[in-house]
Design a protein that fits this description.
Strand order of the largest sheet: 1-3-2
Strand content: 5-15%
Distance between the termini: 12 Å
Order of helices and strands: EHHHEHEHH
Helix content: 25-40%
């Protein structure tokens, strides 16, 4: 999901959330760079986020190669590296550090990364508002009040799941966005 941030000063570095999108005032050199890159972009030849991060010098070991004592710090470094590049996470508390790192490395960041329009961010929501994400939201993230209200309306509510992590409140956020993106 790509989101515009209308609350950020324009032309601020790094290029995470600089403007309100292509219709707002932009740094023309950025716009020209994006246009030239975007016009030639093809998913079958585009680098993945993993490849882009590695080219930029971010060390990304395979999840199986990270020991239990360091998985939390390796995961945190990846989260911060993504945020520096305008990629943010939401709804991660239902995963352990190892599960989150593995999902990011093996799935979320392993797809072709299209050039991002100036003034936008990318959000990786690990509890999307459709399909299995609905069940996960109800089991892990919905308040007791919401669960009760929905139950009274006849909506089947899954059992409450204990979240193995409490990292969502400390995840990096783009300037001008609420404390919790999800």
């Amino acid at each position: 999901m790509i989101m515009h941030n209308p609350h950020t000063p324009r032309n601020q570095r790094p290029r995470t959330v600089e403007s309100s999108g292509i219709d707002g005032p932009l740094d023309h050199s950025e716009l020209l760079e994006w246009l030239s890159t975007s016009r030639g972009w093809r998913p079958n030849t585009a680098p993945t986020w993993i490849e882009r991060l590695r080219v930029e010098g971010v060390r990304l070991p395979n999840a199986d190669d990270v020991c239990d004592q360091t998985i939390a710090s390796v995961t945190q470094r990846l989260i911060l590296s993504l945020a520096e590049r305008g990629v943010y996470l939401a709804h991660t508390d239902h995963l352990t550090d190892r599960e989150l790192y593995g999902y990011l490395i093996d799935t979320a960041l392993a797809i072709p990364a299209p050039p991002r329009q100036p003034g936008t961010i990318e959000l990786i929501d690990l509890c999307p508002p459709y399909g299995e994400g609905i069940e996960l939201m109800l089991a892990c993230y919905a308040s007791d009040n919401v669960r009760s209200q929905l139950s009274l309306q006849g909506v089947p509510i899954p059992p409450r799941r204990t979240k193995p992590a409490e990292r969502d409140g400390q995840l990096p956020r783009p300037p001008g966005f609420p404390e919790h993106l999800g």
